[in-house]
Amino acid sequence: MKEHVLTVENLSVCLQSNKEQQLLDNVAFVVPAGEIVAIIGESGSGKSITAKAMLNLLPKGIAISSGKIEFLHENVLTMSKKQQQVYRGTQVGFVFQDTYATFDAMRTIGQHFRELFSTHTNLSKQEVKERAIQLLQDMQLQNAENVYESYPFELSGGMRQRVQLALALALDPVLLIADEPTTALDLRIQADVLHLIKDWSTRTGGSVLFITHDLGVVAEMADYVVVMQNGTVIETATVMNLFDHPVHEHTKQLLHHHRELTNIREQLQIVESRPLLTVEHVGKAYFKKKWFRKHSVQAVSDVSFPIHKGEIVGLIGESGSGKSTLSRLLLQLESYEKGKIIWHGSSPFRKGVQWVHQDPLASFDPRWDVEKIVGEGLDYWKENGENKKEKIKEVLQKVGLHEHILSVYPYELSGGMKQRVAIARALLLKPELLILDEPFASLDMSSQARMLSLLQEINKREKTAILFISHDIRAAMALCHRILVMEKGRIVEEAHANELVSSINVYTKSLLSSMLTLHPSDRLKEKSTMEENEYAIQKN
Amino acid sequence: MRGKRKWFVNVLLCYLLILLLVTFLAPVLTPYDPLSIGLAKTLQPPSAAHLFGTDELGRDVLTRLLYGGRISLTVGAAAMMMAIVIGAGFGVISGFLGGVVDRIMMRILDALLSIPSILLMIGIQVLIPASLLSVVVIIGMTSWMPIARLIRTEILSLKGETFIQASVVVGASSSQLLTRHLLPQCLPTIIVMSISGVSHAILSEATLSFLGIGIPPHEPSWGNMLMGAQSYLLSGAWWIALFPGLLITCTVLAVTYLGDVLQDRFALPQLKKGGRS
Description:
The complex is a heterodimer.
Chain A: E1 4-15, E2 22-32, E3 36-40, H1 47-54, E4 62-71, E5 74-75, H2 81-91, E6 92-95, H3 109-120, H4 125-138, H5 144-149, H6 157-169, E7 175-179, H7 187-204, E8 207-212, H8 215-221, E9 224-229, E10 232-238, H9 239-244, H10 249-262, E11 277-290, E12 293-307, E13 312-316, H11 323-330, E14 338-343, H12 349-352, E15 353-356, H13 370-380, H14 388-398, H15 415-427, E16 433-437, H16 445-462, E17 465-470, H17 473-479, E18 482-487, E19 490-496, H18 497-500, H19 506-513, H20 523-539
Parallel strand pairs in A: 3-8, 3-9, 6-7, 7-8, 13-17, 13-18, 15-16, 16-17
Antiparallel strand pairs in A: 1-2, 1-4, 4-5, 9-10, 11-12, 11-14, 18-19
Helix pairs in contact in A: 3-4, 4-6, 6-7, 10-16, 13-14, 13-15, 14-15
Chain B: H1 2-24, H2 26-29, H3 61-97, H4 99-114, H5 117-127, H6 132-142, H7 145-159, H8 162-170, H9 174-210, H10 222-233, H11 238-265, H12 269-272
């Protein structure tokens, strides 16, 4: 039996104002030395509170009512201020989801490093710089020297996450606590960051407490899994056991959602020969004025494809590949210089094509309640003898929302509900084509799976064609009949979902390789093939 | 803090209501005629018969204040309405159409803004004979520019918002976008601007009358009462200047403060409930 780095016993956390309100109830788990432990649960299950309790950094108004947290045989809760400083500063490193809020926007990355080292060590300025650059290079950041001098806003989200990781690992901690570190990132960057954490753990023998909502991440990373629901631990198991023999109902449900998200869709027999929408050689360039020269950026170039009735088409690519621009061109929200987009639907274009934006809240008028938002379309496309309110209730029911939210303002709803309101608004007009721009971006895994089956149901029942735009190749393969891969404004591949796996296109392959494994047993095998690939690339 | 502020708002509201009431009921409330001259009782200090004293021509100051309030408040409200209509219209058209039209309209605005407004007022006043209407028109014509600029900026930034595009996708026409989304979003700005516009207009009227080019001197208004008072201030007749001055200050302050409160009232629903945005 290995030694335990972190032991949590009967941890209960409650609101100070109301002791009855238990946020965590008898949470217990251990983190063995050198292992990766994942805490998984839906949003609101108490994962993040647990992480904060480990550091004794609970927000004001929330207190630990009972229990013990032991770090290397020392009780964290009874440590003196000085001990706590050492504990948090040097023995534990942490990484959060929000890569922007964790940095002081007024200071350079270098200043962050200097602050850290000057508090806990007595290295000279020059030594700090050398050490920091070494760390940044370890995190596979190109141009580490430049990064060291940059301000946080000058870096991309993926770069900031690497810097955060470098800072967390700077003082060689024993334990790394990572709270959803990859949720907001592109798939490829996610894979990189996960590998960095994993490599660190195997290299230095450090332990990791990893918090996530995505079973894919668990399958990829974890040795042990702690499943949480409503503030309690409902199951603890090794990763293999969890995937093969889940015990608790909720775990089974999570696994079911995960499978739904990873099932590959069979292809669709297209009956009608005339497509619903054809895109022919469309191109769009943006101009940036720089002094007297005009600098053009080709956002979309020479894109052609059709969308048929009742078909779900996926458009995947990394951020900056021109997906969103293309969607705006399709919606005629922007003009394009080259090519043609032709609509063959039976209803007028503005009614027949509807849109769900990646940030649903931004797409609602902030002064309107749900009823007005959803019903907006009917005001413009009036039909005689229609009962507007009935129609709105009907469409809300279709997307699985209760009608009592009609008078609610959207900012009061949860992420999944907002997304459903946005879909309800689009469905109200009975569109023939639905354009979804990153609809899963802000949802946890279970909400994603529910949204996925909702979309499939809509597609089946109403024969609505769907264009699904996403960076998430996994979700696209689960939902779409046909997938278009976009890179730097061009469509580089078009394939049916079940054919995409065996694609020979270099770019598609690299996207596929960053996909998370479906089952922990696939992990070893895949890693070795990847290393071979990397070796081959380096050789060339 | 909140309760205290509410109490203060109520006091201000009462003050404005009473002011409106007494100016409206002026003929009933005072036995004097604001225009009748009584040379027997010039420059009398406040007394029981003349609560606020009499002026250099023996007219009752209180009576003139009440009648003058009618003119000052009318000018304030009417000029503000005019400024808002012109300003908001100009701003909306410029911001919504954008492009070349916007650029031309903004240059016109810049040109107008570059002339000091008092100079502009005097310039126009020379051309048309002084009357109540001319004062309203002049103040309205010279104070709509900042409103136009503000509304234009607001419309411009709103135009790029996702929810506007979402409405376009659902099928809204340009005019529907304007009336259903853009204008309601601008409403808080318009209301706050119009409230502070009232106080600005009252002050402008006072300024014009003080300079002797506003309301004709025999007609009472707070501004030209102040002007009439200046030569007698040094000889000790403080009451002629003090009361109109006080009224102008208090009214302008009250209106401005209420504008602030209204701005909070019209904030977005998520901000209104005291929650996080």
